[in-house]
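chain below, 738 aa
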Amino acid sequence: MKNRYKLWMIMILAAGLAFLVLYHPKKIRMDVLKDYEYSDQYVRLTELPALLDFYYFSKTEWEEKLTQAKLPDIVTPGTVTWILEQTGSAGYITYHPKEERTVTREQWNAVYEKMLDLLDVDNQVQIIEDAILEADSGTLTTASGSFTYDLDGLDVESMTAMGFYAKGDRIIGVRSLKSKQAVLENIYVRASDEHGLDFLIQGGQYTVDIALEDPKKVEGRVCDLLWENGQVVKVQVKEDTIAGDLIAVNDTTIEIEGYGEIERSKKLPVYKKYGTVEEKELSDIVIANMKVEYVVAKERVEAILLVEPAQISRIRVLLLADDGGAYRDQICIGANSAYRLEMSGGITEQPAEAIVAASDLFAAEAGNVIRIAPLEETGELFLCDASGSRISKGYFGSLELRRYEEGFAVVNELAVEQYLCAVVPSEMPASYELEALKVQAICARSYAYIQLGQGDYAAFGAHVDDTTNYQVYNKQDRDEKTTAAVLDTAGMVISYQGETAEAYYFSTSSGVTGNGEAWNLTADPKYGYLRNGLVKEGGGDIDLSSEESFAQFIAAPDASCYERAMPFFRWNAIGDYQSKETQEAMQGMLSARKERTPQDILFMDLQGQEVPNMQGFGALKHMGITKRSVSGVALQLRMDYEQGAVLVGNEYNIRMLLGAGLTDLTLADGSKRDGSLLPSAYTTLTLLENGTYAMSGGGYGHGIGMSQNGAGEMAKQGKTCEEILQFFFQGIEIVHLP
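prediction:
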């Protein structure tokens, strides 16, 4: 009887357990990560913490709350109601659950997106319907960019389209594995046949299978790819193009010569059609010197096609205001001959000596650019003050007045060789030997050609400015001798390993020239033409990396150096860095330079750990040069404070900081100079007392590449232009560009 009773109880318990297994909702363990399982018919509870992370609780906290709530593994109407209550949105979001036991993905998406509208005030979560270009182990490359994800088991195929929710560059949930509609805009079709096409977009090359009736219609064209229900279904060709030189570009518009400003696509791809077909960058366009086609749709530029190499002929120079900035409150223009005004309403002519003011011209001008050009080829334009008095040398070419919210900017466009005729006399005295002036012309031309391709001032429609930021331009009168040097070397540049070399130059050496280590250039092989070496007959190597060897070199100048008689060949300075005013100025410089060149400024606490700023550092206690290059230039200045330290790199930063306290500067000829920038970073630094330091140094300028005074002395000794260039730059060729 007992055995029968025991068997009966076992059967009842087994039946109860079976009921629990079969009918009790599953409980999820948030601490156990399971493979991602996508379904249109339901949503798993494990998906929710990442999706809800945008609101109040973190992902981990949502996991804990969901676990404590003992909710089913599959999201139910009750789950949705609970979430709305937890987020305080139940009274604002209308939710009428149906009788089904589970919530479909479409139903969940509808509620979730209402929550985003209501609660995601910072727009942390983006809803994206996108084409998938490439799927690779936790990373999706899409039309919108690259996204990472940790949804283990998510199976995504390339060249499909899906919908997802993203927070930054991380996918936090799937909206749909088959997006109803998606578009990949502005691809460039490299090749096509009846079965599909190869195309470029976002720096990659991809292939998609699609039946094409007329493959040649899309090949070599910019197109959109259209997806429906996750599959690509159509290739839409963008037919309309215009042509013209690119003059200026910013984040919202581009300026095309002959068309003016036109709205641009936010993502504006650039495709090179000649030679090797490839995707390029906007910065690869040499503004005002390159034949360019623009693909246009709905009055907006969608893509740019480069159809032939740049043909360098003209340069555009931003003329900076007296404060060193681009903008001016007012500027007037005059000329020594009749000139024309090109405005949106047409062209008008002005007589010689007529003065026009930017504010007056723009008062009745719809556009933002006014071009002013002499009617005669030899005519010159001048910047003038409000009274009409000239405040500049004459400018050849044309001047553009450009209107911005911040004020007016002025750009001078002219032929490159004309530009160089106004650079060489501004950078090297016309009294120098012709061979030295030729050297300067070739270096200036090489430097200018490099800058033409940089696009630093593309927003202003310019390549360079007119200061030492690039090359000093039009600050001295043109001279027959310097003009002859430019014309005699027309088209000649320095080439290194087949590329135009950036021919750095400076005023005066201390008897050595540097290889660019002071600017962290030595790691890049393209600067292999820069060298460390003595600036004297025959050159030669020297190691001045120790404080002892450099101090001895400075104290006992080599009489055979080319620049031995130059005032800046040696100098002595005194700096007082103890005053509160000076130390505050230095801290301001350090903060500013940290923003500009963060790799060159390191703030540390007393334990040597990097910190973001100098807050709480206190007063400066000591300074010392802790690293030099082989050429002797200071590579690192250490500044010790009461509660921290700063390591300063880059020769300009070091010169600026030491120049802040400069009280006396005496040159080799006994003359005194004033200044707030130390002549060079080829200097010793010796503590005297009470925050005062003595400095013994040599040279003027950065010390990298060619010494202008060294070149001048070499030319006096009969060296040719080619010999001088080969001396300062190793492994180079002097070539003629077309």
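The two ends are 113 Å apart (CA to CA). DSSP finds 14 helices and 43 strands in the chain.
thats it, cya
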